[in-house]
Amino acid sequence: MKNKTSIGLFLSIALFILGFFIHGNISLYFNISGLLIVCGGTLAASLISFKFEQLRIVCKVLLSAYKNPIKKETEIINILIDLSIRSKMEGILSLQDQENETTVLFLRRALGCLVDGYQIEQIRDILNTEMYFFKLRREDCERILRTIADYFPAFGIIGSVVGLITMLGGIGDTSIILKAIPIALTSTLYGLIFANFFFLPFASIIRERTNQELLLQKIIMEGVIAISTEMNSVILKTKLESFLTPSEREASLVSYAKIRERFAIEQKEKSENNDQRVT
């Protein structure tokens, strides 16, 4: 799936760039003055709007989203089922050996609460608080990226205005007008490309990853609480698979024959038919 995404991305970018080559010289789309106005203005506005530490955190989150693949739901469920079996075989304190081996920080925190003997209500409250503020932090990163994406077109327009002013000031001098036209046009182009090709997709990536990680955290919370109640491993597996799509579940659906047998549906239908014959 990752290879397919990379191939699709490469082809899409190639088609996008090809559109610049078909009608005109590619060098016409490069203008240092317009690029400096758009990028410099946006960077200055970002530094005025947000602290440097906030911008650093956004870059860190973006790098992590691209470099560190997120675990699948089925992997987390298998880990929790394995922990459930170990807790029954070796006792609940044996989970402490597994705490430092897991790669998911949220799972480690949840297991830490479990090993320390917290009550179910306390575990749920702690983990819900962790999830809530995790979501707030990620939403803050997304908000920063969307704000920066709004700055780019605005400074693109500023660059266009600068080019137009230069053109008006050079009326009568063809050389000045020819130098000002690329600034006026490419500035808007740069602003739109940076906003829609980079920063808005970056914000969407953070939102998508946040939703996936929140789902994993919900699975972990329910699984750890179930382990603390010594829930049967089979029942735990069935419960956690409720978070998965039907195509990802290993369990097969119960047949209609078993449903009829369990609820005596056939006998009920026969009794109703007999009652109708008697009447």
TrEMBL record:
Pfam families: MotA_ExbB (PF01618). GO terms for biological process: bacterial-type flagellum-dependent swarming motility; chemotaxis; protein transport. The chain crosses the membrane at residues 7-26, 32-50, 151-171, 177-199. GO terms for cellular component: plasma membrane. InterPro entries: MotA-like (IPR047055), MotA_ExbB_proton_chnl (IPR002898). It is found in: Cell membrane; Membrane. It is a multi-pass membrane protein. Keywords: Cell membrane, Membrane, Protein transport, Transmembrane, Transmembrane helix, Transport. The keyword Cell membrane applies. It comes from the Bacteria. Residues 105-214 form the MotA/TolQ/ExbB proton channel domain. Belongs to the exbB/tolQ family. This is Chemotaxis protein MotA. The gene is motA.
